[in-house]
What we know:
mainly alpha, Serum Albumin, Chain A, Domain 1, 5 helices, 0% strand
Amino acid sequence: MNRPDISPQSPVNVHLMAEAMKRGFADFSAFIADPGFVEVPLQGLFSPDYARARAAEIQPDAISPKVVAGEPAKYGSGSTTALALARLWRLWSPPCSCLCRAWRPNTSPIPACR
C-alpha cells in the first residue's frame, strides 16, 4: 500500500503497519522451515500477487481480531526468480556472528558481536 498522503506518524499509518505486520508474522510462524527438509512455498511467499492479496485483507478502519497465515502455495508460479532470490539471500551473511553461524556455519564470527 503506497499512501504518500498519510504521514508516517499518523494513527492511520500505524494501524496499517500493525495490520501488515500481523500478516507477516502469521506467515512467518506458519512457514518458517528449512526448505532442504520441508516443502516451503517460497514462490508463493515471494509472489507480488500474494502480497497484494494479503494487503487487500487489511481494513483501514477496523482492527483484525485474529490473523491466520495465508495460502501462498496458490500463488506459486513456474518462475524461478523468487527461488533465485532466496538462494542469493542465503549467501549473504547478516552483520551478527550468531546469525552468521546460523546462515553460514563455516564462517568466522564478527569480533564486535559476541
